[in-house]
Amino acid sequence: MAIQLEGNSLLYTVTTLTCLGFLLIGFDNGLMGGFINGKSFTETFGIDTNTNYGTNIIALIVSIYEIGCFIGAVTTSFIGEKLGRRKSVLIGVVIMIVGKNMSSNCSRPRSLT
């Protein structure tokens, strides 16, 4: 049984969900910036942010994260259309679990890139 939305209720629902999506993107970016620029992160991975090499490593980590977000956003519509919502969500969850496990097991900057 699907809910049929029309008119203002459709507009408010789409607007609310879009705002929540952008809120989550901002939250993720804020967390990413907080972790990467934190003293414990730079000390653990031996990144000296006062050098060009250190700032380039930080920029590379953030860039890979953003590229992954872009690729995921673009491909989700195509994959979701062919496989359906449940299978595409399952694939996304598996990819996130694998990625989080890989990043949580890193012990040096080279492992993150």
Automatic annotation (TrEMBL):
The keyword Membrane applies. It holds the Pfam family Sugar_tr. InterPro entries: MFS_dom, MFS_sugar_transport-like, MFS_Sugar_Transporters, MFS_trans_sf. The keyword Oxidoreductase does not apply. Keywords: Membrane, Transmembrane, Transmembrane helix. It is found in: Membrane. Belongs to the major facilitator superfamily. Sugar transporter (TC 2.A.1.1) family. This is Major facilitator superfamily (MFS) profile domain-containing protein. It comes from Aureobasidium uvarum.
